[in-house]
Amino acid sequence: MEPEPKVLKHELSSRLLHWGLIIGFLPAALTGIIIWQKPGDETFVNLAMQIHIIGAVILTASSLLYAVFAMERVVAFIRHSFSFDKNDLDWFMLMMVRGGYIKKIVFRKEVEIPPMGKVNSGQKLFSILLLIGGTFLIFSGWILWAFIPVAPKIIIYWLNMGHLVFALALSMFLCVHIFLGVYFRDEFKAMFTDGTQSLKVAKEHAPLWVEREVVPVKKAAD
What we know:
single chain, Fumarate Reductase Cytochrome B subunit, 10 helices, 3 strands
């Protein structure tokens, strides 16, 4: 029996960044809620702050290393994320307005989705929020950590408010992202294993990407 053809969906640098974002952002997000709400005593909140800083270091280091050593992937990420056309509008109308996700996930109905590229329209929105919000979180977080005693109070106030808003928005989007990633397990497996995906699945979920940019990894004749 011939092996099923596969394509490379996520390169190693992108997979490592994903691991770095998870290991860094999740503890930072959880401890950030503790720092914000202060549910325990001072010792507990101080411990949360220490874990928060460790998560921030991992998040910052992962992002900077990716930007320095995988700039071509950063450019591709921005190009994919900010590229919108009529298919994206149709996707939003179908999946968000007309309840396409509910029909597909809850009622197990087949939903004819407009042809997508490497990332779908919802992933584009999350990617844009991640790029803008993540950059602001890293920037504002280190300023809040290092310069509170000397920076003007008005600047600290607005940086803190922006930090909170972006953190909450990214956390909510991340919950949805994780759920959909686990639900569509072929995409989850591709991101967290060897980066490959069957050609059949890729054609089903990202036909425009397969047609224009696909990178073959295994051929049936091999």
